[in-house]
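ENTRY TYPE: paired fold submission
RECORD: A
CONTENT: sequence, then C-alpha cells
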Amino acid sequence: MNNSGLNCFWSNQIIDLLYKKGVRYACISPGSRNTPLVNAFVNHSKIECFSHIDERSSAFFALGLTKKSLKPVVVLTTSGTATANLFPAIIEGSLSMKPLIIITADRPENLVNTGENQTINQTNIYGDYVRKMENLNKNKSVGILKKIDSLVNISLGEKNIPGPVHLNIRFKEPLLDNKKLKITYKPKSIKINNKNRSFSITKFKRPIIICGELSSSKSIDIIQLSNKLNCPILADSLSNLRYYKNKNVLAYYDHYIDKLDKMPDCIIRFGKKPVSKNLTTLIKKCKKSSFLIDPYLSFNDDCPNVIKSSLNNTNFIFENNIDYKWIEKILKLEDCTKKLVEKIKFNNKSEITLVETIANKLNNNDILFIGNSMPIRIFDQFSGKLKNNIKLFSNRGASGIDGIISTSLGISHLNKNSKNFLLIGDVSLFHDSNAFHILKNTNINLTIIVVNNKGGQIFSRLSYSNNNIKDFEKFWITPPLTKIDDLANLFKIKYYNLDIKEVNSRLEKISNLKGVKLIEVKINSKTDIKISEKLNQKISLI
C-alpha cells in the first residue's frame, strides 16, 4: 500500500478507536499535514467536529468541552508553529487535570532539523505538561492502536493523574487516499484504584475545612462532614458550596481570616488552592497541620500531609473535643462582615456592585464562567452566600487571561438546558477575541458581561503601583485601543452599553435572546478600592 493509502487507513483506525474510548468532540485547526486525520474525523458520523483558525482558541474551546462533558476531547493541528500555539491550553488542562487528547500531524523524522518548510522538532514539545507523549510512524498494526489505547487511559487517570496527552503522527506524502481497509482491535477498559483510608482528628480542637475548586469531591458529603465535626467550611466561590443553606458554609472569610487571635490546629482541605490570597497565606502558616484529601496525591500542591483517597473512601475518626468559643468567634466574624457588606452603599460604577447584581440575578443551574484577574477575585470576596445553585467555572489551573472566551464558549455549547454567562475584564476580552471566529459554525447561547475599567486595573492595587514607576499605565495597565462595540460589530454580536442599574433590570431579558450577547459595563476601579478600604476599617473594629 502507498503512503496515501496508509495515511487514510491509519487515520480511520485511530478515529474509530478514539470513539470507542469515549471521544465525542474534536477541535480542528486547518492545515495540510493533518489532512488525513481531518478527513477521517469529519467523515465520522458520531464525532462532532469544530473548525477554528486559531489553534490557541481551538484548544481552549476543547478545554471547555471537557470541563462540561467530563469526557476526553481531541485537539488536532498541523505541523510547525501550530503545535506551539496549543501550549497555553495544555498547561491549563494539565494543572486543572482535564483529559485533552492532543494530536499533532508531523513531517517524516528524516526532515527534522534539515530546514524543511513548516518542520520543527515536535517530540516532547510540551514537556512535563502532558502525562505522556507518543511518536507514531505508521509501520506496525496492532502496536499503534495499543499505544493510543494506553494513551487515552492515561489521560483519564489510569496510572496517576488525569490530564493532557500528546500523540504526534508523522505523515509521508502523498497525504490523501480514500482506500478503506480494516483491522480488529478491542480497547482495554480503564481501571482506577482508590483505596479506603482512615484519618484521625481526635487530638485537634480548632479544625476547619477549606474547599477550593472541586473536581471529584461531592459537595453534600463535605457538608455532612462539617456537621459531624462541628467546624466551619471556608468555601471558595469555585467550590460550588456557597448556595447551601448551612451555617457552617462561610463566604466572607477573605475579609477577616487574617484577624483571628488563634490559628486553626487542623486544616482539612479539598480541591485546589483557593482564590483568596489571605486564605492561601493561612494555609502556608498552618502548613504542618494541613491535610489534603485528594485521590491524585497533591498534584501541583505543596501540602505535606496528603491522604490519597476520595472523601467517600476516607473514614474519619474523631472525638467531640472542639473549642466552641473559637468556632463561635469565626461564625460571628462571618455574620458581622455580611451585615457590613450589605450596609455599604455601593456606587453604581463599582465592580463590587456589578458582581453582587449578577450573583443575585442568576437562577438555579445557570452557568457562570468567571474570568481571571479582578473578576474572580471580586466575585470570591463579595458574592457571599448565593441564593441559587449557580454552576461556577474558571480557568484557575495557571490563572491566565488567555483562552477565557474560548473555554466559556466550549462549556456553553454543551449547556442547552440552562443559561450561560461570562464575566470578563476588558483586557481579557481582547486577548481572546479570536474565539469569536468559531461562532460562524456553531449555535451557542452566551451572555458576556465585560467589566470595562480601562485596562488591567489589578496592577493598580499592587504595592509598587504608587512608586512613580515610569510609563506605569502603558506597560502595566495597558488600556485597550479598540472599542468594545467595534469588536462586537466586527463579529456581528448583539451589543449593549449598560450601567449597573440597567444590568439589574435588563439582564434576564437580554439573556433570553438567542446567540452571543455582549454587555459592556463601565467601571471606576478607584471606587472599588475605596469600598474595600472602608470595609477593612470597619471589620478591624469587630
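RECORD: B
CONTENT: sequence, then C-alpha cells
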Amino acid sequence: MLVIDAISEILKKEGVKYLSAFPTTSVIEAAAESGIKPIICRQERVGVGIADGYSRITGGNPPGVFAMQYGPGAENAYPGVATAFADAVPMLFLPLGHRRDRDRIFPHFNSVDSFSTVTKYVEQINGIDSVVDTMRRAFYRLKNGRPGPVMVEIPIDIADKEVDQESIAQYKKAITTRSSSDEDAVLRVAQNILTSNAPLLYAGQGVLYSGASKELQELAELTKIPVATTMAGKGSIDERHPLSLGSSSTVMNGAVLHYMKTSDTVIAVGTSLTKHGMITTIPEGKNIIHVTNDPIDIGNYYQPSDALQGDAKLVLKQLIEACADLLSTREAPESPEDQIREMKLEWKKSWQKKLTSKESPMTPYRVISEFMNATNPAENIVTHDSGSPRDQIMPFYESGGPGTYLGWGKSHGLGTGLGLNMGAKLASPEKFVVNFMGDAAFGMTGLDFETAARSGIPILTVVLNNSTMAIETSHMASSHELYNTRDLGGDYADMAKAMGGWSERVDNPEEIKDAFLRAKQATENGQAALLEFITSEEQDFSFRGILR
C-alpha cells in the first residue's frame, strides 16, 4: 500500500465522506478509490471554504478535508485557512510538499512554516514509518480542545512510497474527550447568577460545537435569563424562543442593545470574548462570568469576575443542576418574556418602512423580509458574505436553532460565503441552503458557482446587486468622484445560466417572494440556483458600531 492510499484509508476510518480539492495532488485519486467523493473547485480559497462550511455544520465529526498541490496551491489556500483559524473551525488540510531535498530551500514556499500561524497544529510526514503516528496526532488535535484547522503536509517524494499495510489496519478512530468544571466554582457561579439583578446569557460558537443548545435553553428557562448570541454563535438557541433576544456583531436589534447596556452580569458561554470589529464589545462595568474550554481566552480581553473552564455542554449541565438546587429554596425569578417581545416588536416596527418598501431599485431589507416570509428557518441553513449583506441580514433573520445559520467574520474575506454554502449543503442535503452576497463578493469567487452546478450541490446564491461598493461610500469619496472607483458591473443571472445553473434577475420588489419559491423549487429539483436582485445603495444599518 502506498503512503497516499494509507492516508485515504485513515480518512475513511475517521468517517470522511468528501474531499474538496484542486489538482495536482495524488490525494484526489487515492480518496476516490477509497470511496471518498472529490469535489473539485475552481480556486483553492473556495475549496477551503467548502471544507470549512462542512465542518461548521458537523462540528468536525466528521471533518471537512481540503487537499491541494505544493507551491501555488498552498499559497492560494492561505486566505481560506486563515478564515478557518480565526473562526476556530475543526477541519483538516492536506497539502502536498516539495521533495525533501528541496524543502525549505529558497525560494520554495514552505507550507509548514507559513501555515503554522493560521493552524492549530501542523506536521509534515517525514518518513514512511511515521504516517500512522502523524495522522493520529492530527486527528486527536482536531477533535479535542479548542477547535481549529489542522494541517498535515505530504512530501511528494513520500506520497508514492510503500508503507506497511498492517500498521494502517491497526489505526483506530480518534477519541473526543471533554471535561467539566470544578464543582465548587460552579456552585459559586450559580449563586452569583441567581443574585444578579439583570443577568444575560451570551452564547458563542462553542455552544454549537459541543451540542449544548438544549442545555443553554434549559438553563435560560430555569433561571428566566434572556439569551443573546455572538454572530458565530447564531443558532445556539432557536431565535423564535421567547427568551431569545437575537444575535449581535457590529449590528444588532433593539432588544440585544437594551440588555447589553442594562445587564449587570454577562454569562459568556462558548465564546472567546475576542474584541474585534465584527464582534460586540461588552460595555464597561459588567460582572463577566466566562465559560470556555480554552484557558487562553480567560482574561484575554476582559477582566472576568469569575470563570469556568470546560466543555460548554458539560458546564451548562453543572450550572443547571446547581441553579435548580438553589432555586428549590427560593422564589422563582420573574420572566422577561413580555418585555423581550415588546422590544422586538418596537424595534421591528421602526424598520417596517424598509422591510415593506415598494421602491425600485429595491432595498435589501425588503429582500430579506420576503425571504423570511417565504421560508421556514428550521428547514434552512443561511449564511452571509462580508460587507453590507452581513450587516443587513444578521440582526433581522431569526435562525431556527443549531445548524440553521453560519455566522462568520473574524477574518472576513469577500466571497467566503459561497464555499461555506456548498460545504453546508453537503453536510445537510435536506436543508434549503442559502448564501446572501453582494456583487463585489460574487466578483471574488463567483466562478465557483459552476462548481456547485457541476458537482450537483443544489444551493441558492442570492446576489444583492447595487452595481457599487456601497459600504465604501465614505471611505472612497474622493477617488469615486474623480474616477468612479466604487462602481461595478455585470449581469450575474446570465453568468449563472452560462455556468449550468438555474437563475433569475429580479428588479420588481413585488416579485421577490415568488422568485424565492421558484428558486427553492429549483434546488429541490437538484439544480444550483442564483437569484440576482437589483437593489439600492442602502446605507442604513441597525445600531451599527454603537457597541464597538
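NOTES ON RECORD B: The first strand starts at residue 18 and ends at 21. The chain is about 40% helix and 15% strand.
STATUS: closed
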